[in-house]
Amino acid sequence: MHFSLPLLALGASLVAAVPSLEVKGNAFVNPKTGDRFQIVGMAYQPGGSAGYQPDKKKDPLSDKDHCLRDAALMQILGVNTIRVYNLDPNLNHDACASIFNAAGMYMLIDVNSPLVGESISSWEPWTSYYAAYLNRTFAIVEAFKSYPNLLGFFSGNEVISAEKDAEFVPRYIRAVTRDLKNYIAKHADRAIPVGYSAADVRDVLMDSFNFFTCAENGDATDPSRGDMFALNSYSWCGNSDFTKSQYDQLVKNFTGTSVPVFFSEYGCNEVKPRVFTEVGALYSDKMTPVLSGGVVYEFAQEPNNYGLVDIHDDGSADILADFYTLKNQYAKIDSKTIQATKPSSSSPKPPTCDSKLIKEAGFDKNFTIPVLPPGAKEIIDNGVKPAPVGKIIKIDDYTVKYKVKNPDGTELQGLAVKPLADDQSNTPGSNSPSGTSGNGNASSTGSSSSPTQSKKNAALGKREMAASGVGILALTAAAFFGLLI
Ligand SMILES: *[C@@H]1O[C@H](CO)[C@@H](O)[C@H](O)[C@H]1NC(C)=O
Ligand SMILES: *[C@@H]1O[C@H](CO)[C@@H](O)[C@H](O)[C@H]1NC(C)=O
Ligand SMILES: *[C@@H]1O[C@H](CO)[C@@H](O)[C@H](O)[C@H]1NC(C)=O
Ligand SMILES: CC(=O)N[C@H]1CO[C@H](CO)[C@@H](O)[C@@H]1O
Fold first, then answer.
1. Membrane spanning segments where (predicted)?
2. Nearest-atom index, ligand 2, CA of 252
3. Mean of pLDDT values over 351-359
């Protein structure tokens, strides 16, 4: 084995790729090592919903230089997966997918968008379930199925957010899951996981979990059963703890799950600045046996104030203080251990779908899944026509073109994506250009940030900080680190 290492490294500079992951029981597994994979994820929707404009040929994975900037920054953080919500199947995503692949990051892709005709509606779902809608979701499959770093598809996101949406919607989400899985089985060369991303609303969460992960007659191959289940979890706010956040209940409730469960969003911002202490809990041995990590909401700053990086129209960007707080929390994760556990050898059988699984009175108890709408069978049989095609391409230059500044106003030097060796996913510390240690401020040396300090940073506007002279100090520090590297 040892002899082949240099050869592998050589090959890696040509076409490095992360290994496509598989689902085994309640775990994502790297088939090459047999190790379990924990998602260290980032929600990526620069521009918010305006970042998706099919009429302007624009979506979050269609601009190479933007992706280079953001992948480089996420590499510094230590992210290994991105979640992207709204995509146009007919745009070319090769450069961005290849950049994130080289940076060691997987992609979780939502097949829907908020536009009419591009998602199942919470209200009268049958009016939104038709062939052209399915054709679009299958086109997303076509556009992404060939990227090795595609981790999975979300068949829906928070379509059920209250009991009022729960009477009929669940069976339609199961129908879409079935259709996507049947399409993938016929037209993709590997089993790509499909699952639902649920709202963490107590009235509907566990019923959603049971509804989407049970199987007809307990048969795990039932195509309408989700391959994974995710929840958008915002119950840990500020310096909370395992019990106060009710993470203990989540672990208890999902124990024995027959599919991987993870947070498809987390990062409550009710207490500001965020301290991201939930990271320590999420990747601790209290949670990793049951959950498979989570996705932080979110990379780009938007009016709702969850962002880590403020991106400007000219492509330049300002790193916000929360970015370094999260980076420092990620740095404490014991990646080697959490990414190298063996999945449990016994996979729990899926529960048999039965109205007894459902607790809330208003929640769908009908497991007869709606039949395909007219015209859809032909598309599943023959494939989307014309089908978009995606492929990994060679990226000649990984240098970031835009100026990116630290919270104190200093500019990051030498910012570039650092392509990883073949079969590597990104971990904290795999890329650290000068000026990105500590808090991204002049005097920072250590790897821990105190909440009081970040509060101060957030309170001080960027301009004030520069005026106070911190900027000049930081430049000196950046130059110093530059010499070291
Ligand atoms: C199906 O999707 C493809 C790719 O987006 C598109 O070109 C085609 O017109 C669609 N067909 C139907 C019937 O909606
Ligand atoms: C756990 O499940 C129980 C029973 O369904 C439910 O009452 C409780 O709200 C759940 N807790 C969480 C945190 O979802
Ligand atoms: C269950 O749902 C199916 C459609 O998915 C419908 O045809 C059937 O009538 C429903 N059954 C009941 C008892 O409501
Ligand atoms: C000016 C400023 O915010 N300095 C802080 C930089 O980061 C270090 C380490 O967290 C703090 O100790 C400094 O106070």
1. 465-484
2. 1
3. 97
When pLDDT is cut at 50, 70 and 90, the band that residue 85 belongs to is very high
The Cβ of residue 395 has, within 10 Å, a number of other Cβ atoms equal to 18
* Ligand nearest to the backbone CA of 445: 4
Rounded to the nearest integer, the mean pLDDT of the chain is 89
**CATH label of the domain that carries residue 102:** 3.20.20.80
Probe ligand 3: pick from 368, 369, 371, 372, max atoms within 8 Å of CB? 368
Does residue 2 fall inside a structural domain?
A: no
- Name the amino acid, one letter, at 232: N
Structure tokens at 426: 């990104």
Catalytic residue among 158, 278, 298, 302: 158
Residue 470 C-alpha to ligand 4 middle, in angstroms? 10
Torsion (CA) 18, 21, 27, 31 in degrees, nearest 10: -90
Q: Which residue lies with its CA nearest to atom 14 of ligand 4? A: 453
The span from the CA of 206 to the CA of 203, in Å, is 8
Query: Which ligand minimizes its atom distance to the CA of 236?
Result: 2
Q: Does the annotation count 158 as an active-site position?
A: yes
Q: Which ligand has the shortest distance to the CA of 129?
A: 3
pLDDT in tens, 238-294: 999 999 999 999 999 999 999 999 999 999 999 999 999 999 999 999 999 999 999
More confident residue, 463 or 394: 394
Q: Tell me which residue range forms the domain holding 146.
A: 29-483
Spatial distance between the Cα atoms of 159 and 119, rounded to a whole number of angstroms? 9
Atom of ligand 4 nearest to the CA of 441: 6
Report the separation in Å between the CA atom of 121 and the middle of ligand 3, taken as the mean of its atom positions: 18
CB of residue 90 inside a 6 A radius of ligand 1: yes
Residue 167 is a catalytic residue? no
Residue 466 has pLDDT above 70, yes or no: no
- Measure the CA–CA gap between 468 and 459, rounded to whole angstroms: 14
Q: Tell me whether residue 254 is in a domain.
A: yes
Residue 347 lies in a domain: yes
Which residue is closest in CA terms to ligand 3's atom 12?
366
Is residue 334 assigned to a domain? yes
pLDDT digits (tens, 9 = 90+) for 286-340: 999 999 999 999 999 999 999 999 999 999 999 999 999 999 999 999 999 999 8
Report whether residue 373 contacts ligand 3, using a CB cutoff of 6 Å.
no
pLDDT at residue 416 in the model: 97
Average pLDDT over residues 66-84: 98
pLDDT of residue 15: 60
Tokens matching residue 6: 């240099």
Output phi, psi for 102, to 5 deg.
Answer: -65, -30
Minimal-distance CA residue to ligand 2 atom 5:
206
Count of structural domains, the chain: 1
